[in-house]
Write a structure and sequence with these properties.
The chain is α+β, with helices and mostly antiparallel strands. It is 31% helix and 18% strand. Strand 17 (582-586) and strand 18 (592-598) form a beta hairpin. Helix 5 (139-154) crosses helix 9 (213-226) and helix 15 (440-451) packs across helix 16 (466-481). It is globular, with a radius of gyration of 28 Å.
Length: 623
């Protein structure tokens, strides 16, 4: 195409948007592009789609005529335009907002400005069309099955009856077709999440056929209720289910007077496994969903590393908090990255979890988690870790380094074994500040508290019920000592006990302490289902399996939980402005450290380890 014939966009002002309308022009498809004030635009439909396609030849651009000029248009839009033509709505005068057409992609400033308005663009749209692509061999089968699942839902059957119907052999091909439907590229893209969640009216198009968003939701719920094999544990289901969770959370926070929100950091962590062509969009693509965006600067003139570094810096500056540092232990710098150890690298793929860190606690409004919307406003006042009390961050940025104020309170000594790491035996002469040795009951209670991070529920709102959880913990440990444990104890706890039984706490192994407290009256009654989230086993499974934490002992005899990558000799520090202790590792010259991750340190989570206000404070240079 001759460059002289290319369409040249007029400058778009920050509070404006362009809309497109298709018109007849002989054999060619033409369009009109007009600029409107964002607050005074005509009714329009917005399109949600993917820029690339898996269909052969679908990525070749094609010319859209605008007046006497031509605009190269993404090949993935050609099939959508054909679908519009087939349904008779291509030339009916509808105004469309299609990002690749309505945003000058060559203008970095315009792209940045329009990203800031995505929430308004999609919330103001009269309707949003999700284009999943042309039909495939089994897409009609999948759509028919979705309608069938909606019919089954209307019957209001119990779970047992539901499983009896939906898990019949005759439906296997239907579940496979449904899996293929949710494996379409659109479901895994980061940009399409907010395009799915924000609008009030969303319609899915797959070729010429259409589906309502509620119909898709119902199909997902039916699959979850019956536990469809090879589907509910697949990426196909997980990507779609996560979108539903985000929608359920977004809907109530938009209501007047609602005080809870969605933080951009929590969203970025939860959707870490989604795909993005431009890694800056791992933050930018969720910006419209966040009610707290931590002062993120949107600029496509910045590199990926600059975006992530500035995001971490703006979080710390805005909230006077270092809680963002915990994410850096999960989202570690990718190969070739220049990011320091304290800044999360959102390119790193991490298995999503609604509460990935202790700093994701419900009580922290500016960070928080993706807890169910049913827990909003239920009257529960959530507990809060506050290892440094009410003291805020005292820090400064020196290039890529972070200088912070705090206290080094202990050093890791012993570490429980894991699937990937050997047990590291404690070697220090343990002595608590009280000067007395703890009883086996006190030590086991502390270990139990550590294994659940002193919380009753996954969303970290309520304190551990000591009597109930200690009973279940002791029961499982005692059973773990028996030869028949394999049949009575769930494999994950049995494995943990095997890895930990020889670790010494105040000179005696875990197994010795359990023997010492065994009164012979334990019977197998403990709940051992990780789906029961407010049980000891459910919390244990969250912390050990999903959060990958391991038990440790310190030189001063404290007991805690640390990341699996923690090592003997790592420092346990209280950094002002961080709600939980952090594990730091000496790196390079004296005074330089790198971040290892969060630490639960029993007896130090609520300011107990803080000295008086005039106590000597240390400066940590974190790189």
């Amino acid at each position: 195409m001759d460059p002289a014939h290319f369409y040249i966009y007029e400058k778009l002002q920050p509070e404006q948007l362009r809309l497109c309308r298709f018109i007849r022009n002989g054999a060619n498809l033409s369009a009109v592009l007009e600029t409107f004030s964002a607050d005074e635009s005509p009714p329009y439909c917005a399109l949600s789609y993917t820029w690339s396609s898996d269909h052969p030849g679908a990525n070749d651009s094609w010319p859209l005529h605008i007046g006497e000029k031509r605009l190269p248009v993404l090949g993935s839009l050609k099939a959508f335009v054909q679908a519009l033509r087939a349904t008779g709505v291509l030339l009916n005068g509808t105004w469309w907002w299609i990002d690749s057409i309505c945003i000058n992609q060559a203008d970095m400033q315009e792209r940045s400005q329009q990203v800031e308005h995505m929430r308004q663009i999609y919330s103001d749209a009269h309707k949003v069309i999700v284009w999943l692509g042309p039909p495939s061999d089994d897409s009609d089968h999948a759509l028919d099955f979705i309608h069938f699942l909606n019919g089954v839902d209307a019957a209001r059957l119990n779970r047992e009856t539901l499983r009896g119907i939906l898990l019949q052999k005759k439906h296997r091909e239907s579940w496979t077709a449904l899996k293929h439907f949710f494996l379409r590229r659109w479901w895994s893209r980061i940009w399409t999440i907010q395009e799915f969640v924000i609008p009030s009216d969303v319609s899915f198009w797959c070729g010429p056929r259409k589906l309502a968003r509620d119909s898709v939701f119902t199909a997902l719920i039916m699959a979850d209720r019956c536990g469809a094999p090879d589907f509910t544990d697949s990426p196909a289901f997980i990507h779609a289910w996560h979108r539903r969770r985000a929608w359920l959370l977004y809907k109530p926070i938009c209501e007047p007077g609602h005080t809870s929100g969605l933080s951009l950091a929590a969203l970025a962590a939860y959707f870490a496994n989604n795909e993005a062509t431009d890694d800056r969009d791992r933050l930018y693509g969720l910006y419209g969903l966040g009610t707290e965006n931590h002062g993120l600067e949107i600029s496509y003139a910045l590199t990926v590393d600059e975006v992530y570094l500035r995001f971490a810096q703006s979080f710390i500056t805005r909230h006077k908090s270092l809680d963002i540092i915990g994410f850096a232990s999960l989202f570690v710098a990718s190969p070739g990255s220049s990011l320091p150890s304290w800044a999360p690298d959102w390119r790193t793929k991490v298995k999503p979890f609604v509460v990935p860190l202790m700093t994701s606690q419900t009580a922290t409004q500016y960070l928080g988690n993706l807890r169910p919307s049913t827990l909003f406003g239920d009257g529960v006042e959530p507990l809060s870790y506050s290892a440094t009390g009410s003291r805020t961050a005292e820090c400064s940025f020196e290039g890529y380094a972070l200088r912070v104020q705090g206290y080094m309170i202990d050093v890791i000594d012993g570490l429980a074994g894991t699937r990937n790491s050997d047990l590291i035996q404690s070697s220090a002469e343990h002595s608590f500040e009280s000067g007395r040795a703890l009883s086996s009951t006190e030590i086991l209670t502390s270990i139990c508290r550590c294994l659940v991070l002193d919380r009753h529920d996954r969303y970290m709102r309520r304190a551990m019920p000591t009597k109930q959880f200690y009973h279940d913990f002791m029961e499982l440990c005692i059973l773990g000592l028996m030869p028949v444990a394999k049949g009575w104890v769930e494999p994950r706890f049995n494995e943990w006990f095997r890895f930990t039984r020889d670790l010494r706490f105040q000179g005696r192994s875990l197994a010795d302490h359990v023997h010492n407290c065994d009164d012979g009256g334990i019977y197998p009654t403990a709940v051992q289902d990780d789906y029961i989230q407010d049980s000891f086993y459910g919390r244990f499974f969250d912390c050990v399996e999903r959060m990958s934490l391991r038990v440790m002992t310190s030189r001063n005899g404290r007991i805690g939980m640390v990341p699996e990558k923690a090592m003997k000799g790592d420092s346990i520090c209280l950094l002002l402005g961080c709600s939980v202790p952090l594990v730091l590792r000496v790196s390079g010259p004296k005074g330089q450290f790198t971040v290892v991750g969060e630490c639960f340190l029993d007896g130090c989570m609520y300011g107990e380890a803080l000295g008086p206000e005039d106590a000597p404070i240390e400066t940590f240079h974190i790189v």
